[in-house]
Amino acid sequence: MNLNRYNSWAVVTAECSIDSKAFSIIKELQDKEFKVVAIDENLKPIDGVEVYESLKDVPYNVDIVAIIEKYTMIESIFDEMELLDIKNMWFEDGSFNVSIIKKAKELKLNIEYESDLYKGLKEI
Questions:
Q1: What are the C-alpha distances in Å from 85 to residues 10, 13, 20, 120?
Q2: CB 38 within 8 A of CB 26
Q3: What is the spatial distance between Cα 124 and Cα 121, in angstroms, rounded to a whole number?
Q4: CA angle 54-75-99, nearest 5°?
């Protein structure tokens, strides 16, 4: 998946401490000058990043949704993506199972689930 094609990212996370992979990815996206927001149903603040409870709260169109760790509310993310006509999704290793990938394919999403996002960002 060509990362440069996507200008605005929504990173879905349940845990975004300074030591987390989600935080590293968000900061790398910012360093590469991508527009990035975090989606956290608990609205935990992240320094320098807008945090929203859901995708539908983001005040602009999102090009791609990144799931960084297992997310219990994945069905609601799929529903919101369908509602907002978001067609691109990135799953980090460990954030998905076979049924989640099957559902994403049924929704005809452009998905990536075999590459490391942080590593890919470092290479651009």
A1: 14, 21, 29, 25
A2: yes
A3: 5
A4: 145
94-103 tens-digit pLDDT: 899 999 999 9
Yes or no: say if 81 and 65 are a contact pair by the CB < 8 Å rule: yes
Give pTM, 2 decimals: 0.93
Structure tokens at 3: 């990362």
Q: Where are the beta strands (DSSP E) in the chain?
A: 8-12, 35-39, 50-52, 64-67, 88-91, 110-112
pLDDT tens-place string over residues 71-85: 778 999 999 999 999
Total length of the chain: 124
